[in-house]
Amino acid sequence: MLRLDKFLPYQLSVTSNAVSSAIARTYEVLFGLRVPEWRLIAVLAEQEGVTQQALVARTEMDKMTVSRAAQALVARGLVTRVPHGRDKRSHALALSEEGRALYAQIAPKALELEQKLLQELGAREVAQLKATLAKLKSASHALR
After folding, report:
1. Cα 23 to chain center, whole Å?
2. Which secondary structure element, helix H or strand E, spans residue 6, and what is its range?
3. What are phi and psi of 79, to 5 degrees?
4. Are 43 and 53 in contact (CB under 8 A)?
5. pTM for the whole thing?
6. Model confidence over 72-126: pLDDT tens digits?
7. Smallest Cα–Cα separation from 106: which of 16, 45, 19, 15?
8. Measured distance CA(50)–CA(29) in Å, rounded
């Protein structure tokens, strides 16, 4: 018999939702950002000139979520959109100066939140958790 409280996919989902909700409140209150918007800013801070299709792949968010987040960030002047190559329908996104300045404020807060989240774990446990999550992510891709 399946028991949800013992079922790993359920446990991962509930844990992920709890962590995301706690962090989302902070990003919303301090920076006026939803989680998808923050994720796009974080990716664009690492690599500028990224297409929405590449953002979908990198963040593993659906196309509509990425599109809405990108539109909101462009409207706020945090992200710029420029034509990508010869395809007039494709655009590359990059952080604007204002977007980079906001990222410089958010990144330390994100690291602080991560530290608080992991404070009960030792360095070895954190490393093992990250390795285990990477293996689970890889295994989940094999199921697709």
Report:
1. 11
2. none
3. -135, 145
4. no
5. 0.84
6. 999 999 999 987 776 667 789 999 999 999 999 999 999 999 999 999 999 999 9
7. 45
8. 27
Encoded amino acid at 143, one letter: L
* Contacts of 4 by beta carbon, 8 Å cutoff, 6+ apart: 10
Q: Please give the torsion angle defined by the CA atoms of residues 29, 39, 34 and 54, in that order, rounded to the nearest 10 degrees.
A: 160
Closest CA to 140 of 12, 19, 40: 12
Q: Which of 117, 110, 107 is nearest to 18 (CA)?
A: 117
Distance CA(126)–CA(81), nearest Å, equals: 37
- 3-state SS assignment for residue 18: helix
Q: H-helix or E-strand containing 50?
A: strand 50-51
Cα–Cα distance, 29 to 91 (Å, whole number): 30
For residue 15, the SS3 value is: helix
How far does the chain reach from its first CA to its final CA, in angstroms? Answer: 25
Residue 64 burial (CB count, 10 A): 9
